[in-house]
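Hi all, long-time lurker, first post. I run a small reading group and we've been trying to get comfortable going from sequence to structure in the token notation. Rather than ask abstract questions, I figured I'd post a concrete chain and ask someone more experienced to write out its structure so we can walk through it together at our next meeting. Sequence below, copied exactly:
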Amino acid sequence: MSAKPQAAEINVRNTECFSADSLSKLKQIMYESKASSGTFLFREGEKADKLYYIHSGRIKITKSSDEGRQFILYMYQEGDMFGQVDPFRQSTQVFNAEVIEDSIIGVIRQKDLEVLLWQNGDLAVEFMKWMGLVHRMTQTKFRDLMMFGKHGALCSLLIRLGNTYGMEHNGHIVITKTHTNTELADMIGATRESVNRMLSELRKIDAISIEQSRIVIKDLQYLRDICHCEGCPKDICRM
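-- Answer (accepted) --
Happy to help. Here is the structure in token form:
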């Protein structure tokens, strides 16, 4: 490559379904909290009564198995909102939220959110759309894992990484955020060794390359064919 690509911002934030006015109203009821890398915003089993908006930084959402294995479900960045609130009963967190970069987080308490939604019908409709978006993202990720094997799950993951961190360069897509093979394995529920093997196979057929420690997608259509891509919009097909 002739030049080292600069870091690209995430292409689609999951709060784009909110109008500017609605997002402003949500921000007005947030209180700000700072979180250091390596800490947790919440863990499985804790009370779930807040939403979190990322002003800056990055958060990963994980799920732990009984054997102690960690599965990475989401990677959130600036402008994303996440969390679990249940309007019908007191619920507990089913995931962990780990801070992977020093972050500034806007915290929305459930009781404040309920009042705001009661007072603003348009915001309530947009909030339902946001909840539907998050639910569909989860559905498509589990579809990738369960329907088309580890190879299909890895190809889908590479497409999602490209949509989230991608930069076009010389007709290819450079994934500007680097991830270890162990992290990639945790994202698809595979072993590091199997990810090593699958990446090597993709490199041999020139579907991808590794340049300056970054994955470069060279044949996007091949990846789409392997994972039976349904052409979901980027606000769905992302990390």
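A couple of things your group might point at:
Residues 12 and 235 are 6 Å apart (CA to CA).
The chain has a mean pLDDT of 90.
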